[in-house]
Amino acid sequence: MNPVNMIKSLIRWAVVNSLSSDDQDFPIHQIGYMGKTADAAAWYPYGYHANPGSETLALFFAVGANPENRVMMPGSPKERIDALMPTPLAEGEVVMYHPTTKSYVHFKANGDIEVDSQKDVNIRVVGNSKIDVQGNVDIDAGGTLDLDSVGAMKITAPTLLMTTDLTIIGNIIHTGDGDLALTGELGLGVAFASGLKVAAITSDTADADRVSQGSPKVRVIGPMEDA
Q: What share of the chain is helix, strand, coil (3-state, %, to 5)?
């Protein structure tokens, strides 16, 4: 092979023909190029990995000008154009995305980071996790919001506003210096250290009479004891 043809053969376009089992040290894929079929090892930047599907466009390199030493770098230029994607990007923007599902992480020009997942998001942390937010936090759940902790849960805030029914299985223990004001129906036992103000009360138990005298609106079930 003359030098000109050797240089031309160093880099070629190729198409991935089949999926890799992805269980070897070097991920080997079958590729097609110039009417030929061969195996090539996929190569990615340090810390990145993928398992490209069939029909994926790739650049094929003959390392050391040896046509038998094949390495390919797959890409997905056409898959970035989709109604679910944030393309076209503004100048300086970066997006990391899944070519098939279109889930993506978008690094925007104004400094924002936008994450869009078409399926579930699962995060596993072996150690501690800390989230420091200087602004507001909004959680909008279309389904159930579950918070499950084997330890105590602490909420420190000037006020806590809940605009829905609250069901508590267990006791409310109030140990602050101020009063605990409850309005509405109470279906629980309440232990308190300072004053308990109940807007209106009716009860089958005599314990409730020492908290409030009168107004028949709030129902107390279970004992109410001084903490």
A: 5, 30, 65
Q: What is the pLDDT of residues 84-135, one digit of tens each?
A: 999 999 999 999 999 999 999 999 999 999 999 999 999 999 999 999 999 9
Give the list of residues 6+ apart from residue 100 with CB closer than 8 angstroms, or none: 53, 79
Query: Across-strand partners of 73?
Result: 59
Q: Where are the domains of the chain?
A: 3-74, 76-118, 154-227
The CA-CA-CA angle for residues 8, 62, 67, to 5°, reads 90
Omega of the bond leading into 74 within 30 degrees of 0 (cis): no
Tally of CB atoms within 10 A around 209? 11
pTM: 0.72
